[in-house]
UniProtKB/TrEMBL annotation:
Name the UniProt record assigns to this protein: GTP cyclohydrolase-2
Lineage: Bacteria, Pseudomonadati, Pseudomonadota, Alphaproteobacteria, Acetobacterales
A GO MF term: GTP cyclohydrolase II activity
Reactions performed catalytically: GTP + 4 H2O = 2,5-diamino-6-hydroxy-4-(5-phosphoribosylamino)-pyrimidine + formate + 2 phosphate + 3 H(+)
InterPro entries: GTP_cyclohydro_II, RibA, RibA-like_sf
Ranges in coiled-coil conformation: none
Active-site residues from the entry: 297, 299
Co-factor requirement: Zn(2+)
Species in which this protein is naturally found: Roseomonas populi
Binding site for Zn(2+): 224, 235, 237
Length: 366
């Protein structure tokens, strides 16, 4: 986990890293952060001209034509980069669909089928761990060259194992009584993974861990800065958060709200703002995430299951409209004895958002 965390930090700073696996190595840089120095370091470690790795939906837009399938449906696409495209501004425009000027169709950008299909998915996964745009400049490299330049090395196995390792290594690191407006008897417990990353929180209303044979009410709530804190009308997150806490306070056994650091269904706040811009241009919330190169839902419910186990709550009634949350927790060993509906009326701004959740995500909204 340590190597992944450090590699992500370097990518966010614009520094290349080395990805190794199966006897191969790639030198990588994040397209949205790399500058001239990072590109020079990448060139110094590269054994061949670099390509740009993109999710297939984004690659099709950059190339202005369909991307030939070279593997699984969601496999990354590789785009050849001419010298004219190997500058920070061009790379950012190709990576970011909301950049001011998208690159026009150009013979300079062409598919590079067959490029390191074994390592490319892990390269994109590493960018996603850092909540960067999943767009990586990549080139075959030698481990010796990377070591000579002082580049950090991370293995494919470490990258692919990271989500599970981060979820299952969560430990409770702090807890305090925090009386809330709608729940005077509330506590907040903080959980941190072994890599020292972002903390997840559990809001305990009453004493749900002492419910015995009774399954207390529980909710998985992904953090939403815009909705929870600012009262954004684009979503229903704020009302769902406050409504859940009030509902738990009215329960004899109380309840637990797991406040997970998975903003924007796991894409992070910056990318969520980019997705909002795409939605203003006509895309719905699902297609906007895919246009950025992310999946429709990037959340990991193993985080919630680990927190519930640590608190001592093996069975719950889940307050949700999302059947995927029920299935996700059950797959992780949590007994979900029932689903409790959690509906809030549209506000005139989020009507299309709620309609998309019902029609395309399968939420049970009546």
């Amino acid at each position: 986990m340590r190597a992944v965390h450090r590699a992500v930090s370097d990518l966010r700073r614009g520094t290349p890293v080395l990805l190794e696996g199966g006897g191969e190595a790639l030198v990588l840089a994040a397209a949205e952060t790399v500058g001239a120095r990072g590109l020079a370091e990448l060139a110094g470690a590269a054994l061949a001209p670099p390509v740009l790795l993109l999710a297939a939906p984004r690659a099709a837009v950059v190339l202005a034509r369909p991307v030939p399938a070279t593997g699984p449906e969601e496999a990354p696409a590789a785009i050849r980069l001419s010298p004219a495209l190997l500058d920070p501004d061009s790379l950012r425009r190709m990576a970011d669909p909301v950049a001011d000027q998208l690159l026009p169709e150009s013979p300079q950008a062409a598919p590079a089928p067959g490029f390191s299909q074994a390592l490319s998915p892990a390269a994109i996964a590493l960018g996603k761990v850092g909540r960067l745009l999943p767009a990586l400049v990549a080139a075959p490299a030698s481990a010796a060259a990377g070591a000579r330049l002082g580049l950090l090395s991370v293995s494919v196995a470490e990258v692919l194992a990271y989500p599970a390792s981060a979820a299952t290594s969560l430990t409770r690191v702090a807890e305090a009584r925090v009386p809330l407006e709608d729940a005077p008897e509330a506590r907040i417990a903080a959980f941190r993974a072994a890599d020292g990353g972002i903390e997840h929180l559990a809001i305990l209303v009453g004493r749900p861990e002492e419910a015995g044979a009774t399954a207390p009410l529980a909710r998985i709530h992904s953090e939403c800065f815009t909705g929870d804190l600012l009262g954004s009308l684009r979503c229903d997150c704020g009302p769902q958060l406050r409504g859940a806490i009030a509902r738990m306070a009215a329960e004899e056994s109380g309840g637990v709200l797991l406040y997970l650091a998975q903003e924007g269904r796991g894409i992070g706040l910056v990318n969520k703002l980019r997705a909002y811009t795409l939605q203003d241009g006509g895309l719905d919330t699902l297609d906007a995430n895919r246009a950025l190169g992310y999946g429709a839902d990037e959340r990991d419910f193993r985080v919630a299951a680990t927190m519930l186990e640590a608190i001592g709550i093996p069975r719950i009634r889940l307050l949700t409209n999302n059947p995927d949350k029920v299935a996700g927790l059950a797959a992780c060993g949590i007994e979900v004895t029932g689903r409790v509906s959690h509906l809030f009326a549209a506000n005139g701004v989020n009507d299309a958002y709620l309609a998309t959740k019902k029609a395309r995500f399968g939420h049970l909204l009546g």
